[in-house]
């Protein structure tokens, strides 16, 4: 990287030297070239927002990390969407939701998943049983086959996870 | 990385939330809790914070559940999906907090990721023509996402963002409905434009009549040549402008004595990064034809013909200010 501290000049250089490489990298991981182009653009926008451009030692490692994060989010959203649509397909016909409700539920699922991202699976399940199903700690312990103390520890961990999460994190 | 510590009131609020488990809490617990809550206004705020987690998505799920039973269960099943091995492998060892990332809102606005899940979507500077099963022709402007829902009784398009021009094929039995976040437009055979902005929508009827139906149930008949903005508060007629004429479908924007701000607004989906305009520059009147497929050239010609200073900071940021 050049030794200037103008973030826009730094970004311009970063873009010029790496965008072709990044798009190729993403294209190999996505079937759709349009998705790859979108994610390439998103990656640079995120780099622009990171405000640490002058500290980047290894631009491709930095961009690769950002791109991986976006790629993971995309996969995760598609995976959630698929699971939700699978569950919908098993509902009786007369319960078919409206498009508005599908959109509402889809967004709610993504919001909850984002908040819990990174939480270990057992704590995640305990927290969802508590908040979504309204189960008490004893009932959760029985459902998950663990001790009451474990449930309490998992729930505490989940609360702290959610409360200390950077709200700006994707 | 060590997680950041909670402040003392929040820590206590978590303790109380766990202690007030409905199966275990005694009346002494509840009294002690009431005393804690009353002792300090910061305790109330902390309690609200802890118990407000997931409040919005949970309320949304419950609303959907009331209208269509089974939604809560479907959501729970979806949320029980563990992250795929593919994802874990990719994420392994990453410390993203260390990168100090911020500002996802700007990213979402500029290159909407949720568009990738829609039936049809376009990215920056891309237009697309789609012919639907009934013969209706859609042209999507850049950065547009929509879903198509057709069945035996109705034809419905959900416009999530962006803009579309529809040449609706006649079907006397199935009305054609375009739904936005603020209402919907209904017609049986027509040519019209619908645009979804943040918090409001625009409809412009180009040929034959169409009905605008607002969220409160009120309906307004629009004739060819008429256009309207609509949002949560109501609708108001829109003057003919470069936004209502839909010339982008032919690759250009035509300004007839219109403010620069509006022209830039229409150019945004063709610019890959941030296009910032100052309020003073936004008011300058403009005339002329601008090709959207060469946005850099369009910006250069604005700089040459108007009293503005157009400054590019690399490929992702351009500012426009009054010279």
Automatic annotation (TrEMBL), chain A:
GO biological process, one term: DNA-templated transcription initiation
Pfam families: Sigma70_r2 (PF04542), Sigma70_r4_2 (PF08281)
Limits of the RNA polymerase sigma-70 region domain: 14-79
Keywords from the UniProt entry: Sigma factor, Transcription, Transcription regulation
Gene3D superfamilies: 1.10.1740.10, Winged helix-like DNA-binding domain superfamily/Winged helix DNA-binding domain (1.10.10.10)
Signal sequence interval, chain numbering: none
SUPFAM superfamilies per UniProt: Sigma2 domain of RNA polymerase sigma factors, Sigma3 and sigma4 domains of RNA polymerase sigma factors
All copies of domain RNA polymerase sigma factor 70 region 4 type, residue ranges: 110-162
GO molecular function terms noted in the UniProt entry: DNA binding; sigma factor activity
Family: Belongs to the sigma-70 factor family. ECF subfamily.
Name of the protein in its database record: Sigma factor, FecI family
Species for this entry: Azotobacter vinelandii (strain DJ / ATCC BAA-1303)
Lineage: Bacteria, Pseudomonadati, Pseudomonadota, Gammaproteobacteria, Pseudomonadales
Automatic annotation (TrEMBL), chain B:
Pfam families (alphabetical): DUF4880, FecR
Annotated ranges, domain FecR N-terminal: 11-51
InterPro entries: FecR, FecR_N, Ferrdict_sens_TM
Protein name, UniProt field: Anti-sigma factor, FecR family
GO MF terms held by the record: sigma factor antagonist activity
Domain FecR protein: 119-207
Superkingdom in the source lineage: Bacteria
């Amino acid at each position: 990287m050049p030794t200037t501290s103008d973030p826009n000049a730094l970004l311009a250089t970063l873009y010029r030297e790496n965008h072709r490489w990044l798009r190729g990298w993403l294209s190999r991981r996505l079937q759709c070239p349009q998705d790859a182009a979108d994610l390439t653009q998103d990656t640079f926008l995120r780099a622009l927002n990171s405000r640490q451009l002058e500290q980047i030692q290894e631009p491709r490692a930095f961009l690769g990390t950002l791109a991986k994060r976006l790629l993971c989010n995309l996969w995760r959203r598609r995976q959630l969407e698929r699971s939700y649509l699978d569950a919908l397909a098993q509902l009786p016909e007369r319960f078919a939701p409206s498009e508005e409700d599908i959109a509402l539920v889809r967004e709610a699922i993504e919001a909850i998943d984002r908040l819990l991202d990174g939480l270990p699976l057992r704590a995640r399940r305990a927290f969802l049983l508590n908040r979504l199903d309204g189960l008490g700690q004893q009932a959760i312990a029985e459902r998950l086959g663990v001790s009451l103390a474990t449930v309490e520890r998992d729930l505490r961990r989940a609360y702290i996870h959610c409360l200390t999460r950077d709200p700006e994190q994707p | 990385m060590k997680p950041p510590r909670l402040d003392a009131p929040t820590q206590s609020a978590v303790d109380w939330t766990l202690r007030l488990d409905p199966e275990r809490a005694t009346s002494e617990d509840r009294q002690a809790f009431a005393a804690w809550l009353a002792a300090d206004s910061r305790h109330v705020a902390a309690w609200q914070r802890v118990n407000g987690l997931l409040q919005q998505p949970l309320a949304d799920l419950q609303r959907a559940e009331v209208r269509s039973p089974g939604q809560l269960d479907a959501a729970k099943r979806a949320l029980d999906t563990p992250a795929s091995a593919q994802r874990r492998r990719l994420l392994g060892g990453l410390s993203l907090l260390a990168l100090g990332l911020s500002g996802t809102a700007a990213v979402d606005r500029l290159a909407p990721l949720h568009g990738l899940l829609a039936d049809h979507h376009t990215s920056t500077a891309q237009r697309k023509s789609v012919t639907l099963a009934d013969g209706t022709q859609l042209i999507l402007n850049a950065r547009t996402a929509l879903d198509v829902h057709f069945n035996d009784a109705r034809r419905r398009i959900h416009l999530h963002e962006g803009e579309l021009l529809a040449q609706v094929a006649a079907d006397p039995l199935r009305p054609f409905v375009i739904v936005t976040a603020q209402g919907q437009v209904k017609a049986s055979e027509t040519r019209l434009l619908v645009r979804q902005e943040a918090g409001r929508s625009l409809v412009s009827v180009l040929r034959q009549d169409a009905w605008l139906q607002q969220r409160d149930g009120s309906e307004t008949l629009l004739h060819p040549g008429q256009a309207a903005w609509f949002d949560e508060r109501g609708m108001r007629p829109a003057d003919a402008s470069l936004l209502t004429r839909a010339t982008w479908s032919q690759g250009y924007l035509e300004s007839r004595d219109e403010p620069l701000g509006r022209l830039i607004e229409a150019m945004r989906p063709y610019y890959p990064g941030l296009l910032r305009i100052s309020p003073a520059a936004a008011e300058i009147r403009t005339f002329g034809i601008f090709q959207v497929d060469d946005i850099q050239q369009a910006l250069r010609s604005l700089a040459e013909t108007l009293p503005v200073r157009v400054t590019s900071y690399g490929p992702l940021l351009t500012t426009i200010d009054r010279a």
